[in-house]
C-alpha cells in the first residue's frame, strides 16, 4: 500500500479546515475602526505599499527559483 505524503495530508486538512479557521463573526453595521483610522491618517497607503512589496518579493523569488530549477533540469538531461 502506498504511503500518502505528509504535505498532501496537510494540504487536504488546510483546505477542509480553512473556511472554519477563517470564519468571522456576522457582519454588523459598525464600521471597522482601525481601517477608518488608517484611511483618515493616510497610513493606508503605507500598508498597501508594504503588502505590494512583500508580494512582489515573493513573486520575484518564485520566478528566479523556477528559472534555476528549469536550468538544472536541462543540465540533468
Folded structure, characterized:
The chain has helices at 6-21, 33-41, 44-76. The relative contact order is 0.05. The model has no long low-confidence stretch (mean pLDDT 81). The protein is 75% helix and 0% strand. With 77 residues, it is mainly alpha-helical. This is CcmD family protein. Keywords: Membrane, Signal, Transmembrane, Transmembrane helix. The chain crosses the membrane at residues 46-65. Residues 1-22 form the signal peptide. It comes from Flavihumibacter stibioxidans.
Point out poorly predicted stretches: none
The radius of gyration over CA amounts to 21 Å
Mean pLDDT: 81
**Helix share of residues?**
over 70%
- Please, how many helices? 3
Order of helices and strands: HHH
**Number of DSSP strands?**
0
Structural class, judged by helices and strands?
mainly alpha
Portion in beta strands? under 5%
Instruction: Characterize the overall form.
Output: flat
The end-to-end distance, rounded to whole angstroms, is 31 Å
Q: What's the main sheet like?
A: none
